[in-house]
Amino acid sequence: MKFQISNFKVQNYFIFVLSLVTCHLSLVTDAHAMHISEGILPFNWALFWSVIAVPFVAWGLYRLKKLSSVDLSFKPLVGLMAAVVFIISCMPIPVPTAGTCSHPCGTGISGILVGPAISILITAVALLIQALFLAHGGLSTWGADIVSMGVMGSFAGFLTFKLLRSMKINMAIAGFMAGLFADWATYLTTSVELASGIRGDSPFMPLFWKIAVAFIPTQLPLGILEGAMTAGMVTLLYKKRPDLLVKMRVIKAEEAI
């Protein structure tokens, strides 16, 4: 059975979410640096995080090629998730003392639906487009942004959801916690990356906590918002198209209602 994306009823929900985000973006008049800005990390640290990111992106390409060879209609779903991650992660709230921005990530829902490998690939593409055309993030810091948002966010969302569902936790709660932890894991990792790169000869932990605390006023509510969005999306799919969740191995066939 192939995904019938054109008849995908819940696409109206995604369109609604994307419309809200688009309206938000249309009201933003100032350009702010998103993700870790260009030039923030020293070259050696930027290179280090890029080297860490490469095998994960390669893994995503391998998984996409493998799954698409079995079902060609998988690619449109990946394209839809890429659009969701791209737009959701374009909601900038500057954090002046950290040299970066707060924003939702979208990797919780993508990690749940398409798995961490392809979610990382989706995030890498979204970050590259934002760096090239929107001046959000940077090319030298692309690897660091992939690791924090793509790798850590996707794995945190995927593993949290799997763990809670294995404990028979309600779908909505599992989705909420997955979105919440995916968001917060991203910013904890960003704090590690920033503190490691800019501390110089200073101790690591004081600077790490200073950066992490700087994120709290924005990321605490944003994480809760992202958790609610993730719970809404996965619950809607569960109610309207459980067959798709079975197809994507999110739930087992006997769990479909």
Output the radius of gyration.
Answer: 18 Å
Which strands sit side by side, in order, in the main sheet? Answer: 1-2
Instruction: Please give the count of helices.
Output: 8
Poorly predicted runs are 23-33
Largest sheet properties:
2 strands, antiparallel
Order of helices and strands: HHHEEHHHHH
Total strand segments: 2
Q: What is the average per-residue confidence, as pLDDT, rounded to a whole number?
A: 84
The span between the termini is 18 Å
The shape is globular
Give a brief description.
The protein contains eight helices and two strands; from the N terminus they run H-H-H-E-E-H-H-H-H-H.
Explained architecture:
- With 257 residues, this protein is mostly helical.
- It has helices spanning 11-26, 43-70, 74-88, 107-133, 142-166, 171-198, 204-240, 242-247, and strands at 93-95, 100-102.
- A hairpin with a 4-residue loop joins strand 1 and strand 2.
- The longest helix is centred in the C-terminal third of the chain and has 37 residues, at 204-240.
Key words describing this protein structure:
single chain, about 260 residues, mainly alpha, two-stranded antiparallel ribbon, 8 helices, about 0% strand
Topology (SSEs and partners):
Elements lengths: L10 H16 L16 H28 L3 H15 L4 E3 L4 E3 L4 H27 L8 H25 L4 H28 L5 H37 L1 H6 L10
Antiparallel strand pairs: 1-2
